[in-house]
Design brief:
Strand order of the largest sheet of chain B: 2-7-6-5-4
Number of domains of chain A: 1
Radius of gyration of chain A: 17 Å
CATH class of chain B: Alpha Beta
Number of strands of chain A: 10
Strand order of the largest sheet of chain A: 7-4-3-2-1-10
Number of helices of chain A: 9
Structural class of chain B: alpha/beta
CATH superfamily of chain B: HprK N-terminal domain-like
Structural class of chain A: alpha/beta
Number of strands of chain B: 7
Low-confidence stretches of chain A: none
Number of helices of chain B: 5
Mean pLDDT of chain A: 96
CATH topology of chain B: Udp-n-acetylmuramoylalanyl-d-glutamate--2,6- Diaminopimelate Ligase, Chain: A, domain 1
Strand content of chain B: 15-25%
CATH class of chain A: Alpha Beta
Mean pLDDT of chain B: 94
Oligomer: heterodimer
Shape of chain B: globular
Largest interface: A-B, 15 and 13 residues
Helix content of chain A: 25-40%
CATH architecture of chain A: Alpha-Beta Barrel
CATH superfamily of chain A: Metal-dependent hydrolases
Chain lengths: ~250, ~120
C-alpha cells in the first residue's frame, strides 16, 4: 500500500509455550523487516521477560519494537499491553507475576517457555504456568497499562477462546483501551455486523504469529508520520485509533 | 442416606447416553466426581484427579487442561461440537471426550443422581 506502513502488534516469541522455538529475536526481526513490518508488538503470555532481547536486537533492523505482554484477565479475556519503554514493560511483568496462580508449567502438555538473549541463545526456561488467567479483572489490567503510559488492546475480540465479545458478550463501559484487535478470520465490517457494540470503535488486525511464517501476514496499515511519531505508547495508540477510524476500519 | 458408587467413564457414558467422540483408551478410568466450568484457568487451578468436566469449550486446549489436572474425561454439553484437532489431541492423550445435547445443569443433576458426588 503506497505511502503506508505495516504494523503487526501481536507477535509471540519462544517464551510463549504455544509458539515455535524459531521465534528468536534475529529470525523474527529479519522476517518482519523482509515483510516490511516497521513496528512490531512483542507479546508473550503473561510475561515480558524476552522483551529486552527483542528491543536490543531491533537496533540492527529497520523495525521498531513495542515491548509487551498478552495478559489473560480473570474472566479469561486476552489483552495486549504494549509499551515504548522497556522499564514500563518490565514493571508490568513484575506486577502481573504477583497475580498468576503460582502453578508450574507442564512442558509436555503446553510446550517450552524459553528465555532468550539478543542473539537468540536460550538462557533459561520460565517454569511458571503462563498460559492461564491472572486474578485481575479486564478493567483493572487496562487501567494498569494506561497508568504506565502503555497501549491496551483487547486481542482477537471475536475469538471464541479468550476473545472479549464471546467471553463477556459486550464491551464493558468505560474500559480504558485505545483499540480492539479483530482476528484474521473476520473483517472489521463483519465484526461490527455481528457485535454492534464494536460500531464506532477503532478495530485493528494483527497476525498473532506463533511461527515465523505468520509474521506480517495480517497487519494494520498506518501513515509514515504515525510510524515516526515519538510519543508514549498510550498517546501513539490514541493517534492510531484516530487514523484507523478515519480510514473507515 | 446417599451412597458413593464406583463408576467407570464408560458406565457413566452409557447410563447418561453420552456419545464417545475420542479418547476411548481412557474409558475404564474411575469417575470420582465432576465439575462444571467454562473457564480453563479455573479448571487448571481447581480440577481434581478423576473428575468429569462439563463444559461448552471445544478447542484443543481443553485436552491439555484435562490432562494437566488428571481428569477422567470431558463432557461437551449443550450440543457444542469439538474441533478436529481437539479430537486428535484427545486420542493422543487417551482423554475421553463425550458429547451430549443436554445442558451442564441437567448432566450435573443426572450425575448426582447416579451417585457421582
Amino acid at each position: 500500500m503506497r505511502g503506508k506502513v505495516a504494523v503487526d502488534l501481536h507477535v509471540h516469541s519462544a517464551l510463549s509455550a504455544c509458539a515455535g522455538e524459531e521465534m528468536r529475536p534475529p529470525e523474527v526481526l529479519l522476517t518482519a523487516e523482509q515483510r516490511q513490518v516497521r513496528i512490531l508488538g512483542l507479546v508473550d503470555h503473561c510475561t515480558a521477560r524476552n522483551a529486552w532481547a527483542f528491543v536490543g536486537a531491533a537496533q540492527a533492523f529497520d523495525v521498531r519494537v513495542f515491548a509487551g505482554l498478552e495478559v489473560e484477565s480473570a474472566e479469561g479475556v486476552h489483552l495486549l499491553a504494549l509499551f515504548d519503554s522497556l522499564e514500563a514493560a518490565t514493571d508490568m511483568d513484575r506486577v502481573i507475576a504477583e497475580h498468576l496462580p503460582g502453578l508450574p508449567n507442564n512442558e509436555r502438555l503446553f510446550g517450552k517457555q524459553q528465555l532468550l538473549d539478543e542473539l537468540g541463545n536460550v538462557i533459561g526456561l520460565d517454569r511458571r504456568l503462563l498460559v492461564t488467567a491472572t486474578d485481575l479483572r479486564i478493567d483493572e489490567i487496562a487501567e494498569m497499562v494506561c497508568g504506565r503510559e502503555g497501549l491496551a488492546v483487547p486481542a482477537h475480540v471475536d475469538r471464541q477462546t479468550n476473545g472479549l465479545l464471546p467471553v463477556l458478550g459486550f464491551v464493558p463501559p468505560g474500559l480504558q483501551v485505545q483499540a480492539f484487535e479483530v482476528s484474521r478470520h473476520l473483517s472489521a465490517d463483519e465484526a461490527r455486523l455481528r457485535w454492534p457494540d464494536l460500531r464506532g470503535r477503532p478495530l485493528l488486525t494483527a497476525s498473532d504469529a506463533h511461527c515465523l511464517d505468520e509474521i506480517g501476514q495480517v497487519v494494520t496499515w498506518i501513515s509514515e508520520d504515525l510510524a515516526r511519531a515519538e510519543v508514549s505508547a498510550r498517546e501513539w495508540g490514541l493517534l492510531l485509533a484516530d487514523e484507523v477510524l478515519a480510514a473507515g476500519s | 442416606m446417599s451412597e458413593k458408587v464406583r463408576l467407570a467413564v464408560s458406565e457413566v457414558a452409557e447410563r447418561l447416553g453420552l456419545l464417545l467422540a475420542a479418547g476411548e483408551e481412557g474409558l475404564e478410568a474411575e469417575v470420582t466426581g465432576a465439575l462444571a466450568s467454562d473457564l480453563l484457568s479455573y479448571v487448571m487451578a481447581n480440577g481434581k484427579s478423576g473428575q468429569l468436566w462439563l463444559t461448552i469449550q471445544t478447542h484443543p486446549n481443553i485436552v491439555a487442561v484435562a490432562a494437566l489436572a488428571h481428569l477422567a474425561g470431558i463432557v461437551i454439553v449443550s450440543g457444542f461440537e469439538p474441533e478436529e484437532d481437539t479430537l486428535a489431541r484427545a486420542e493422543e492423550e487417551g482423554m475421553p471426550i463425550l458429547l451430549t445435547a443436554e445442558t451442564a445443569y441437567t448432566v450435573a443433576g443426572r450425575l448426582y443422581e447416579l451417585g457421582v458426588r
